[in-house]
User: Fold this.
Amino acid sequence: MSEIIPRSFYSRRVIEVAPDLVGMWLVRQINESIQRVQIVETEAYEQSEPACHAHRGQTSRNMVMFGCAGYAYVYFVYGMHYCFNIVTDKENTASAVLIRAVAFPDNAHLGAGPAKLCKALSIDKTLNGIDVTNPQGGLWLEVGESPPLTQTTRIGITKGVDLPWRWYWQSHQSVSKTSRQLNNK
DNA sequence: CCGGTGATGCCCT
DNA sequence: GGGCATCACCGGT
Assistant:
């Protein structure tokens, strides 16, 4: 078994943590059942830029982002989907890494999108605010590998579109494909 | 293969 | 009341 990723890993600037999370294992436990998937795509969001939910200040929805690193920020969007983030940096520096895609061992499409992976792993709002450095919460991360990365602009947003804050496992089948991106820029 | 669009509910203005 | 860090489906090519 791999080692669990400690809080110090997440307590750095979000643009350092986001690329480092690609290749790590995400583990979901519900009762006796365990799913282990590998992160293949992430995006960084930080209060200073307009695409971030915390850009206009603290609200009840984004409160977790203002807290300590290593906690889950799960939000509901488009009336039917959840997205899962991990809070980074220090307290009161609102920032988080959006987990955009994960690889399931037997199905390349199951985790190829932020809402799809939440559905496949049964991640919903009840996990908002849990500690992902503690297995007691049923959702944690373990050290994996450092694959070849491609860096591009973020997708699915209308503001802050020029920041190159999306990273994915180069040529991996499970990377989300909503928007076509040119490789190796 | 590709772009357009409807579903659906919560949060913030 | 508008907009949203999405997705699957539809129809034209």
About this structure: The longest strand of chain A covers residues 33-46. Residues 14-21 of chain A form the longest helix (8 residues).
